[in-house]
UniProtKB/TrEMBL annotation:
Signal peptide: none
GO molecular function, one term: phosphoribosylamine-glycine ligase activity
Chief localisation class: cytoplasm
Protein name listed in UniProt: Phosphoribosylformylglycinamidine cyclo-ligase
Record keyword Cytoplasm present: yes
EC number: 6.3.3.1
Alphabetized UniProt keyword annotations: ATP-binding, Cytoplasm, Ligase, Nucleotide-binding, Purine biosynthesis
Length: 368
């Protein structure tokens, strides 16, 4: 008589999952302040929200996202300790757009096989990024899916919750004629457009270990550059009265113009001057290596601008000075004005993206 099938024989190793938790728990605890109760391993993460009593009208903000096909680069390079920054950036920096402070986050990792050291490396990166953002990592889940994912494949996702006082809510309602756009530099590709980038690299036949002089490092190292996490810096900038922050936009999928249009009120148009910055080398590489049309580049990649602050007409100098204090490279990107042609069809204008009927964006001139 043969032994019956076991969960381990089916491809799921619960002991490996326990080992992964042991390896990651110190990094997770490092994100916990006194508001986090219960530590690591509970069924639910607990967060003491007593501070809500100090709010007049608290609004909760929430966001969820993943890393996309950038995980394929991490898997190919067998380097997993930076992908967490991409996850946290994609999630908490959407929350800060409305002026909300990201309070806590949870993560989810699906994999074909639990390799404790690999899972712990991913989670340590998430925890380190949460520390940068000032956000507690209060829970997560690792799921082993043999037969659905390959043994060395995984995907990551996360969700976060934040809070903002209603009177401090940022967005289209605050944007005014004459406002100035302040660009905040990206650290590179961040975590969007990797399907295009990977297709370009594959078409060119370039290996990830190829040294690229224009990048100053290997191709793989450039493609794995972690996403800049803006949350703490954006909150600090918004808290500075001299900066007069009216809105933020997080430049992710869809590119600069499409995301900026979402935070402008109907009847307003932003003019973005391409000549105000020089395309970083990685974006020039993608353009030239793949002969990618400018329209595709602009609607897919951030092109060096990861976040945009919309500030008062007389506040640009103060906003730039505060960004410099925070160590965030920034510059004047353009301006906002009443759109006298609102509602008319214009080939050079981006509007109506993500199902939002709001403002519009026009890009002018050429990149330096």
């Amino acid at each position: 008589m043969t032994d019956g099938l076991t969960y381990a024989a089916a491809g799921v190793d619960t002991h490996a999952g326990d080992r992964a938790v042991e390896l990651m728990k110190d990094a997770v605890r490092a994100t916990h302040g006194p508001q986090v109760l219960g530590g690591v391993g509970g069924f639910a993460g607990l967060y003491d929200f007593s501070e809500v009593a100090s709010y007049t009208r608290p609004l909760l903000a929430t966001s969820t996202d993943g890393v996309g096909t950038k995980v394929a680069i991490a898997q190919a390079m067998d380097k997993h300790d930076t992908i967490g920054f991409d996850l946290v950036g994609m999630v908490v920096d959407d929350i800060v757009v409305v002026g909300a402070k990201p309070l806590f986050m949870t993560d989810y990792i699906a994999c074909g096989r639990v390799v404790p050291e690999r899972i712990a490396a991913v989670v340590r990166g998430i925890a380190q990024a949460c520390e940068v953002a000032g956000t507690a990592l209060v829970g997560g889940e690792t799921a082993e899916h043999p037969g659905l994912l390959g043994p060395d494949e995984y995907d990551v996702a996360g969700a976060a919750t934040g809070v903002v006082e209603a009177d401090a809510l940022l967005g289209p309602d605050r944007v005014q004629d004459g406002d100035v756009l302040i660009a905040m530099a990206s650290s590179g590709l961040h975590s969007n457009g990797y399907s295009l980038v990977r297709a370009v690299v594959a078409h060119a036949g370039w290996a990830l270990d190829r040294d690229v002089p224009d990048l100053g490092r290997t191709l793989g190292e450039e493609l794995l550059e972690p996403t800049r996490v803006y949350a703490a810096d954006c909150l600090a900038l918004a808290a500075d009265p001299a900066a007069q922050v009216h809105a933020y936009t997080h430049v992710t999928g869809g590119g600069l113009a499409a995301n900026l249009a979402r935070v402008l009120p109907a009847g307003m148009i932003a003019t973005v001057d391409r000549a105000s910055w020089e395309l970083p080398p990685v974006f020039r590489m993608v353009r030239e290596l793949g002969q990618v049309p400018r329209g595709d580049l602009e609607s897919t990649l951030n092109l060096g601008v990861g976040m945009v602050a919309v500030v008062g007409q007389d506040a640009a100098d103060a906003a730039l000075a505060r960004c410099a204090q925070l160590g965030v490279p920034a510059w004047v990107l353009g301006t906002v004005a009443t759109d006298e042609q609102a509602g008319t069809e214009r080939a050079d204008v981006v509007a109506g993206t993500k199902g939002v009927q709001a403002g519009a964006v026009r890009l002018v001139n050429d990149y330096r």
